[in-house]
Design brief:
This protein is 51% helix and 21% strand. α11 packs parallel to α15 and α12 runs parallel beside α13. It is built from 15 helices and 18 strands. It has four domains: 197 residues, Beta-Lactamase (2-Layer Sandwich), CATH 3.30.450; 100 residues, Beta-Lactamase; 61 residues; 155 residues, 2-Layer Sandwich (Heat Shock Protein 90). A hairpin with a 4-residue loop joins β1 and β2. The longest helix has 53 residues. The chain has a six-stranded antiparallel β-sheet, sandwiched between helices. It has a five-stranded antiparallel β-sheet with strand order 2-1-5-4-3, with helices on both faces. A five-stranded mixed β-sheet has the order 13-15-16-18-17. It is of the alpha+beta class.
Length: 594
Amino acid sequence: MKSHSFFTALFLGNIILIAFILVFGFWRITSDMNRRASELSLRFQYNFLSHIKGELEKSWQDADKLIKDYCNTYSKIFGLRLTVVAFDGRVLGDSEYPAYKMQLHNTERHPEIIEALAGKYAESIRLSRTKQIRYRYVAAPIYFGGEIVGVVRIALPVSDLAAERRNIFYEVLTGFILMLFAAVILSMFLSWIWYKPLRVISESASRIATGKFEPITQVTSSRELIFLVNAINQMQKTVVDQLETISKQREQLHVILQNLPNAVFAINSADHIVYYNASAKRMFELGELIEPVSIQFLLRYSAVLNFYFQGDDNNSGMIRSELINIKMGERKYSLETEKIRVTVDPDGNGIAVLLLFNDVTAIAEASRMKADFVANTSHELRTPLATIRATLDNVADGVCDNVSEFRSIIEILDRHVKRLEVLTYDLLSLHDVECGAVSGRTDKTTVNEQKNQLESLFSVKVAEKGIQLFIESEFMDKPFLTDVKRLELVLQNLVDNSIKFTFSGGVVRLTFTFEGTESLEIKCMDNGCGIAEDEQSRVFERFYRAKTRNGVRVAGTGLGLAIVKHAVERLNGTLTLESLPNQGSTFTIKIPIN
């Protein structure tokens, strides 16, 4: 590779760049100025043509004298050639040539005249046969009495335009030559300023590439650019590539860890947590980790610490797992926990153990609820079925001797069949709202319609228990849109639940409050036995029945509030419960309406 002085290359490069910019600028400026000069010249011709045309049209009856005056004065003052042609092609006047000697101008040799006689402004550049000079002609029709009576034409020698362009070219060229000379001097000065530090940087880069970190020394060399390029290439190969690889691997690992659903804790050999991911922050409600913290300080749960410290060993790759239960705040969690021994870390600087937590609370809760559901369903079915079977066996054995005993048996069978029907209906309703099988169709209804339906449905129960049912709203007849089927399920089960837990002389109140035109709030309030605080989180579970103030569970399927919960979710609403023992309960529902 042939080497050159970096200063020479830098200086020549600057000169070439500046020269290219100046040449390009010179070309653009001269082209633009020539274009503008040509446009101004043409605009002057047209303006002058319009002026002469207007004057001739105003006094066309005395046109001969006016044409003669114009041909002798205007054209000589402005250096233009003026020609006036009659409609039949005769030349009425010309500022450069006797009109009577000129041929007819309505021929193909004069295209601008022909276009002007057709009523248009025309333009052409061609050689004049009379003067043997190239002109740029512009012509316009002359109107008199609403008709074309002739044509006025202005001609400008093309040679004048060329001379004007040459003058512009030489003036601009002189300016750019002076600019180029100044640029050469400036480039030399700047190249020298840039050259000296770049030479020092080149030498320093060479020493860094070989691993010699010595003070920068002044050297006299004319091949600095090659040294600098080689040094940069060497540094990129030995340092940059490795840093980029490490950085990419670290970023990828960080992304993976941050997006893992499992909580991950990295712990060193001194049992200090040095890292945890986003899932760990959310699960254990932790802040940012500023510096390594002892696991005993950060995770203060006996079950976690017992799992971490028991049966420990130093075998790399060893994995232990266990299901542990902890309580955070008011909630209990089931965590599938794994401890992975990564490596032996005697100096305590690296990662020795990974501790992983997988939240399986929902799975455990679902498993428990499934088991409870099967057990409760079996129990609810077994009691009426056993009674029905025993009654039927008695009938089959002939123990029924009279009508009174037979009627009593029928009543027993009817009561337990109704119990099975209610259970079946509730199970089907719960299934429908859970899977979305209820229509989901939006219909119009009013509070009055719902009131009439509820009073008709619960009038017997209310009378039997001796309680009062009030259904109230400021807008009883105001129509609103909602999924009526699901709303009816919600209202019927809420009122039925309140009636069950309200004793004789009590009150059940159902209120409807419209919040604008987009939301409806429904409150179902009773002054019954209320619900204990430890039971409030479970009353919406399937088959769960709360206790009365006497500790007795009210008869029923235990599915009503589960149906309410899922139906409200299908209505895109919210459900809250407020209750105090021996004071009553308030269920509040908010649903969107249209």
